[in-house]
Design brief:
Largest sheet: 7 strands, antiparallel
Strand content: 25-35%
Number of domains: 1
Number of helices: 7
Keywords: Membrane, Transmembrane, Transmembrane helix
Low-confidence stretches: 1-69
Number of strands: 12
Helix content: 25-40%
Strand order of the largest sheet: 6-7-8-12-11-10-9
Mean pLDDT: 71
Length: about 270
């Protein structure tokens, strides 16, 4: 099922990358999301409202919409960086093959966006979105040395910058539910630290060697964060991974349904 989000009118959302230059995409930013979450986010929002390049790209939309666009960049970066400050361990660094681009594939007559070697995949919607390289760049710059070694971040945004989707891939010691719960708590930690009430679902097994946990939170002025954290093993190497898929957008969107459709290998071939 395609993720469809309502922003005034209904806008199609998300996914994909084609070949070496990611052509379609996942990720965006939230309308009115977390403008009071931190001074950092407020500063980003103010910059967005005053930016001439954003005014031009947005067709001279109201400053409130631009504020929302700028703030959601901060939310996406903030969630990824604060939740993932951990010592770099050589054994858990990502390989170049783990960083392979996403590609469109057909599975049982349905179009998906899939990782070339690790086997996870996401439904391909009918509306292509642009990569958000600024989110990737800012996240990497703020996270500090060593972050790039242990993370692969894909970020995409809707054309009006109302919706942001990020995929954060990391290695894991194992695919245990305890480790998955710990990763989910870390990912949601920045929200709790700001006094935002988080709705969490404990990790559960979804197959022989995979599982998922999830959390969500309402943000001020109608924004919302929805995230699904997945644990799985690579089909051939059996190395363990965590994938945090986060959607920041307006409340009322069917983000949860979209996240539920993400598929990871579960002790079988990814095409089954």
């Amino acid at each position: 099922m395609m993720l469809a989000l309502t922003i005034g009118a209904t806008a199609g959302v998300i996914v994909g990358a084609l070949g070496g230059s990611i052509a379609d995409g996942l990720v965006g930013r939230a309308a009115e999301s977390a403008t009071s979450a931190s001074r950092l986010l407020a500063g980003i929002a103010a910059f967005a409202a005053g930016g001439a390049y954003l005014l031009g790209a947005a067709g001279h939309r109201r400053a409130a919409i631009l504020l929302a666009s700028g703030a959601s960049i901060g939310v996406a970066t903030w969630l990824v960086v604060v939740a993932s400050r951990a010592p770099v361990r050589a054994a858990l660094t990502l390989l170049e093959s783990d960083r392979a681009g996403l590609e469109v594939v057909e599975v049982e007559g349905r179009s998906w966006v899939a990782h070339r070697t690790l086997g996870f995949r996401l439904p391909q919607p009918s509306v292509a979105l642009a990569p958000a390289e600024d989110i990737v760049r800012e996240t990497s710059d703020r996270a500090g040395p060593g972050w790039r070694d242990v993370h692969q971040l894909w970020a995409f945004e809707s054309s009006d910058r109302a919706v942001t989707v990020t995929l954060d891939l990391t290695r894991a010691d194992d695919v245990s539910l305890d480790a998955l719960d710990a990763r989910a708590r870390a990912a949601a930690g920045p929200l709790r630290a700001q006094g935002i009430e988080v709705e969490a679902q404990d990790a559960r097994s979804e197959g022989a060697r995979c599982g998922s946990a999830r959390f969500g939170a309402a943000l001020e002025h109608g924004g919302r964060v929805e995230a699904r954290v997945l644990a799985f093993e690579a089909p051939t190497s059996h190395r363990a991974f965590h994938l945090v898929a986060t959607i920041v957008g307006p409340a009322g969107a069917d983000a949860r349904e979209y996240l539920d459709e993400i598929v990871v290998p579960c002790g079988r071939s990814a095409s089954e």
